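Support reply, case 0932

Customer input (verbatim):
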Amino acid sequence: MSTQEVENVTQAKLDFDAECPSCSASIAFNPATGKLTCPYCGFESEIATPEQEEEKVAQEMDFAKAEERGNYNWGVAKKTVICKACAAETIYDALQVADSCPYCGSNQVMEASAENTLAPNGVCAFEVTDKQAGENFHQWIKGKWFTPKAAKISAKPDAFKGVYLPYWTFDSKTSSRYSARYGRHRTVTDKEGKTRTETDWYSTSGFYQEFIDDHLVSATTRYDRAMMRKIEPFHLLNNKAYKPEYVAGFLSERYSVGLQDGWNQAQGEIHDHLHAQITAKIRWEHNADVVANLRFSTNHDDITYKYLMLPIWLSSFRYKEKIYRFMVNGQTGQVGGDAPISPLRVTIAVILSLLVIAVIWYFFIAE
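Our regenerated output:
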C-alpha cells in the first residue's frame, strides 16, 4: 500500500471507527433503527446525514473517465477472508471475526493477503432485519409443496448472514437507426369457399431514441443469474452515498466482473431491450401484425455508471449431501433460491393432474 493510500485510510478512520467506544467490540449497522449498534453492550450511534444534497445519494460517474478514478480503499480498515472449502472471498471489518463461510457454511476460513479494490460510491442499506428475513424464508420454504419435509426442517433460517453484493448500474442516451419489414395479415377466400391467411409485406426504416436509466448488472460471478433475478427488483433510487457505517458488521463481496465487462454485458441486454421497443414502435405506427428482418445500430452517449452495494441475506443448508443456497432481498424481503424436490410428491401431482384432465374430457368433451 502506498503512502498516499495509508494516509487516506488513516483519515477515513478518523471519520469513522468500527470499534464500540463503550466496550471495544465491533459495532454494526442495524436495519431496524438505521443506527450503528453494538450487539454486546447495546451502544447506539447516529449516522451523520450529509449537509449537501448531492452527497446524500450515489452520484453518476463518467464512464469515459473511469480510468482516472483512483480511490481503491473502503474508507475503513478491512480484511479479506478466503474459504478453503469453496474458495469464496469476502471482506470483513478488521475487528470482525470470520467464524464460517456465508456461501457453503464451512468453518475453514482464513485471512487472505490484502488487495486493493475499487471502492463503491453507493449503498442500498439493509431495511429487512435477519429476523424478518428468517420469517420470510420460513414462509417461502413452507409453501414449497414438492420439497420433502425433512429438507424443510434442515433449512434453518437462523443461519442467515447479511452480505453486500456488488452491482454496476449504467445510464445511457441511446440513438438507433433501424430498417425492417412489417406485415399485415388478411383473410382470403378461394373459389371453393375455403379461407386462408396471407400476409402483405412492406419495408420501413426510422430513428428511435431512449434514455436508459440505471440498467443493473451483477458484478459477481458466484451465483446463477436466474437465482439472482428471483429476489429482484431492488429499490435503486433508495440508495445512499457510500459511507463505511452502512456496511459495518456485514460481509461485503468484492466485484469479480469489472467495469468494462459489466458495460459489455449491459450493452447486450440493452440491445435486446431496444429490439423489443423498436419492434413495438413499428407495429404501432404501421398497424402491423408481424415485424421481420429488423436491423439497427445504436450510439450510446453520455454513459455514466454507479458502483452500488446491494443488501442480501444468505442462507444455505445441506440435504442428502447437496448444498442448497437461498437469498432474501435485504430491502424488500423477497425470497429466492432452489429447493430439493420429492419425486413422490411430483408423481402424486402428475397423477392428480391427469385425473383432472380425464374428468374434464369425460364430462365436457366426450359428450
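We compared this against your earlier run and they match. Two observations from our side: Residues 84 and 114 are 17 Å apart (CA to CA). Confidence is low (pLDDT under 50) at residues 1-15. Please reopen the case if you see a mismatch on your end.
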